[in-house]
């Protein structure tokens, strides 16, 4: 910018003026020259670009008007955003105004301009392109399009079938230098397809919605004349037509095992193998080989293998929910399985087969295994009697089941002592049926009864040595009906003939009738 010298007198004159109009007149007087055509409309408004006596504010005022440039600087894009100088120095350092209406303050040198400082670095064929081929005189350079299609639409040979994203396939080096990765499509190029040129398949420059099945392209190469169907990939692969890759084990639901692997295709398939609706169960092919005449059903593979028919592979323990244990091991199949052998529905409980052998007549339910095992019905019967309402204690634990359970019904056995031990009662029925009030299952002779605690007549004195039968000469209920006075038992021993009443204890003690108390 040119320096302008202002006389001292003029400076003094500026200091005197205070009105806005006067200030504007002064600024007009000192304006170094006309502004460019683009700034002409604000030429008389110096404050639009200048702040009086403060040049540091000028950059901010420029960016207030040139919002697109300010946006580039803030976003680090475009020339002003990528150029370090443009983002830091004063705008006037490059764009000097007041040079007249026709002045070029952009000062763009197309020969030295670094296009890398734009959002579109020049690569490949673009480095040899003239500026005018992309930038027109009637538009700003920044408004030039940056997408391929905007410039190269006339060169598009695909006729809108591939969209506008040219860069997906082409590079700036050359249109013919294609870098498209076919693996990003639904049809990856493998084998011989890698050697084919694009136009071998895309003859009319159409690259979308092409059929992807082999037969569509290779119908003329079909040596089977169509009789093997159109799914060439079932047998062939892209590496070589003659390299057959069909794997019956992998590509079908019927793996060829054992003797099947020795068969030729025609042994099972017709001339059109891929249209055959084949059944995969054994009997569909081997019905005539079934020497069981259907007795064992259709599931031949349950017992036989594809190696050889006589090789039986059925394991009842592994292949069923009912392992054969104990006596079941020696039972013939037909003993449980009525024909056809595999259609019988066994529930797996003992009672299904042994209902007729049940000596309990169904009273113990169908879970025979709760007591018996499969080795023998009669041996090793395991039943925990302690889990019933009558645990086996003492002598009871040594008794055989039949001692109490004559009928084998078990649930009809009584629980009270008297029902089983009536003939063993030495008391001849004088006491009640609760034998366990005195006796225990360990030994009848080992009995415990506390007359003092368990009755209302404590035994003291000579009563302690009296036997039970000494007093209990009649039934217990009858004895309980009388009171506890001495006279009830000792009437015959009363030498006073009742003259002194029935309360013998007033004078006598329980130790001896002869021991008389003092009546003081």
Write up this protein.
The protein has a domain at 1-107. The chain has helices at 8-16, 20-30, 58-65, 67-75, 78-82, 148-152, 198-201, 214-218, 248-251, 282-286, 316-319, 333-336, 351-354, 401-404, 417-421, 451-454, 468-471, 476-480, 487-490, and strands at residues 170-171, 174-178. The protein is elongated, with a radius of gyration of 60 Å. It is mainly α. The protein has a two-stranded antiparallel sheet with strand order 1-2.
Side-by-side strand order of the widest sheet:
1-2
The stretches of 5 or more residues where confidence is low (pLDDT under 50) are 1-6, 8-18
Cα Rg: 60 Å
Proportion of strand residues: under 5%
Indicate the structural class.
mainly alpha
Q: What is the number of strand segments?
A: 2
Number of helices, counting only DSSP H or I runs of 4 residues or more: 19
Helicity level, as a percent range? 10-25%
Describe the main β-sheet briefly: 2 strands, antiparallel
Overall pLDDT confidence: 80
Q: Could you spell the SSE succession in H and E letters? A: HHHHHHEEHHHHHHHHHHHHH
Shape type: elongated
Compute the separation of the termini in Å. 156 Å
Topology, element by element:
Layout: H1 8-16, H2 20-30, H3 58-65, H4 67-75, H5 78-82, H6 148-152, E1 170-171, E2 174-178, H7 198-201, H8 214-218, H9 248-251, H10 282-286, H11 316-319, H12 333-336, H13 351-354, H14 401-404, H15 417-421, H16 451-454, H17 468-471, H18 476-480, H19 487-490
Antiparallel strand pairs: 1-2
